[in-house]
Description:
Layout: H1 4-30, H2 35-73
Amino acid sequence: MPMWRTLIEVSWIVAGLIGAAVFAWLATWSVPAARSSIWGVAYVSMLVLVLMGIGPIRQAWARDRAARGASRHG
């Protein structure tokens, strides 16, 4: 049985990272002189996004494991 909750949480993080990269790319296209500053902020934002996602991933993992265990015993 797939771990749907965990996969959904990971996909949200991936979507956020892609979105941040797109915004940073568009910002550097718009203001090329600020390229290093824009990407610096983007990288920090991406790091924060990943760190904020650790808790929800752990919760989803635990729920998926519990559901998988219940389905085996049920």
